[in-house]
Amino acid sequence: MNFFLDLLIELQESALLVWRAVRHPFRRPVYWRETVTQMDSIGFGTLPIVLLAGFFIGAVLALQTAGTLRSFGAQNYTGRLVATSLLRELGPVLTCILLAGRAGSGIAAELGAMCVSEQVDAMRALGTDPFRKLVRPRLLALLTMAPILTVFANVVGIIGGLIVSITLLQIPSSVYLSSAREALNYDDIWGTFLKTGVFGLIVAVVGCRCGLRTRGGTVGVGHSTTTSVVVSIVLILVSDFFLTRLILTLSGTA
Amino acid sequence: MSEYAIEFQDVHLAFGAQKVLDGVSFGVYPGETKILMGGSGTGKSTVLKLVLGLLKPDSGRIIVDNEDITDFSESQLIARRQKIGMIFQEGALFDSLSVYENVGYRLFEQGAEEEEIEEAVRRMLRFVNLEDAINKMPAELSGGMRRRVGIARALVGNPKIILYDEPTAGLDPPTARAICELAIKLRDLEGVSSLFVTHRIQDAVTLADYHATIGDDGEVAIVKNPRGGTGSSTKFVMLRHGKVMLEGEADVFWNSSDPYIRTFLELD
């Protein structure tokens, strides 16, 4: 019973956190500089690892599926399979799990350390609303960077599959690319943006909430960081299932 | 109208099952320094956070500068906090900002002009004797310097109420003494009202026994009070088990026969 009560309280606190961060969007000060800084550190900072992971996921997908497809004489569909898998599932989920591991944990650790060293209290004492100064820039940065990074992951993933197809599977690049292009449709694209938006929100809210509720010194900071990564990843995977169901229903392919 | 600058009326606060404040009432007159003493975990820092509205009491009223802030919203509180300076235990400087940006934080947030900020920051750093450190980062400072930068930051905007949360804890005696002298100067020359949380008896003695005057040469001098003389601008409050145990001037404490207070004052 207590567990559900805690869960409800946590949900309420998270909703309040978002509300306090986004209300009065134009009341001064707006903290554009902090927002740009966060976009840079979260977006550009996570880009290398997203590119690396995306490339190898695309490559290994082509490698794994080509064999099965060949037994059906369908190896020319390798491009389509790689592109669809990336666009619908692997791109958004993988990118946002990487964001949870790199950006979400960083947010939880930084805000947690600020909490235990009373910097958040000091900020409030000096007349600044931490939800506007700390939470809002991170929220905006993750909401914009999650979709953008996912697009990068998808593109390099398809390129990774292409390189494997040409060099190891002897599939001509024109065949791979035209089959990959067939996979692209508008439902997949808006679906990707819906998913990444929700996942970005999850990473931001969980990271900020874990950071700002930190108690108990450096041990508490470590605990908050771990919790933020675990909770974000679990929520991403669970919500992915329901979002996929929703997208398939709305696009009429379920 | 409250005659006090800060007034607590029967304030109760509990964190979960743990009662921190159990009916605390006291007041700080304008221009007075009230020294808040008590063992660790008796809710001294909590009292300061209540004055700022960082925490809300479960019941009771808190009146700051003639306004009952108990039911204020966060945005109303943010406006009220402009006239209160708080000095945190470890300084609580923003690690990512330089000393200059830390001290000028309040003015940066208000969007003040660069020259105005620089002037105010330099004046405050001169007051705490740290003008050389203006371009350093907090990580490069010693504990005592961080504390003094924290004081400079709290003083920007000339607040009429200053809250000290164990500003001398963990410092060597000369540095602790220097910080107490800053508090004396603010009390006697600027007329600020303050709550001074400490568990170091030496701080209490210094604050009660000395006062600041401006000598004939225009220099500020810290002078020992005449024996049995004034010292009335410094009062004491002792907290224990979430209640006010004893309140009054220094003599009430020194002459107390209560064993807990005698141990606290290291009389026995």
Furnish the topology, listing elements before pairings:
The complex is a heterodimer of chains A (254) and B (268).
Chain A (H helix, E strand, L loop, with lengths): L1 H21 L9 H40 L6 H39 L2 H7 L4 H38 L5 H11 L2 H27 L4 H35 L3
Chain B lengths: L5 E10 L2 E11 L4 E5 L6 H9 L6 E6 L2 E2 L5 H7 L3 E4 L11 H5 L1 H6 L3 H14 L15 H13 L5 E5 L7 H17 L3 E5 L3 H9 E5 L5 E5 L9 E7 L2 E6 L1 H5 L4 H6 L4
Model description:
- The complex is a heterodimer of chains A (254) and B (268).
- Chain A has helices at 2-22, 32-71, 78-116, 119-125, 130-167, 173-183, 186-212, 217-251.
- By secondary structure, chain A is mainly α.
- The mean pLDDT of chain A is 92.
- Chain B has 268 residues and is of the alpha/beta class.
- Chain B has one domain (6-94, 160-264): P-loop containing nucleotide triphosphate hydrolases (Rossmann fold), CATH 3.40.50.300.
- Chain B is 34% helix and 26% strand.
- Chain B contains ten helices and twelve strands.
- In chain B, the strands form three sheets. A six-stranded mixed beta sheet of chain B has the order 6-7-8-3-11-12, with helices on both faces.
- In chain B, a hairpin with a 2-residue loop joins β4 (59-64) and β5.
- The N and C termini of chain B lie far apart (43 Å).
- The A-B interface holds A 28-29, 113-114, 117-119, 121-129 and B 49, 52, 54, 74-75, 78-79, 81-82, 84, 86, 88-90, 92-95, 105-106, 109, 111, 153.
Query: Radius of gyration of chain B, rounded?
Result: 18 Å
Task: Write down the secondary-structure element order of chain A.
Answer: HHHHHHHH
What is the total domain count of chain A?
A: 1
Q: Could you spell the SSE succession of chain B in H and E letters? A: EEEHEEHEHHHHEHEHEEEEHH
Total number of helices of chain B? 10
Distance from N terminus to C terminus of chain A (CA atoms, Å) equals 37 Å
* CATH architectural category of chain B: 3-Layer(aba) Sandwich
Number of strands of chain A: 0
Helix content of chain B: 25-40%
Tell me the count of domains of chain B: 1
Assign an overall shape of chain A.
elongated
CATH superfamily of chain B: P-loop containing nucleotide triphosphate hydrolases
Structural class of chain A: mainly alpha
Q: Strand count, sense and closure of the main sheet of chain A? A: none
Distance between termini of chain B? 43 Å
Low-confidence stretches of chain A: none
Largest β-sheet summary of chain B: 6 strands, mixed
Summing up helix and strand content along with how strands pair, one would put the structural category of chain B as alpha/beta
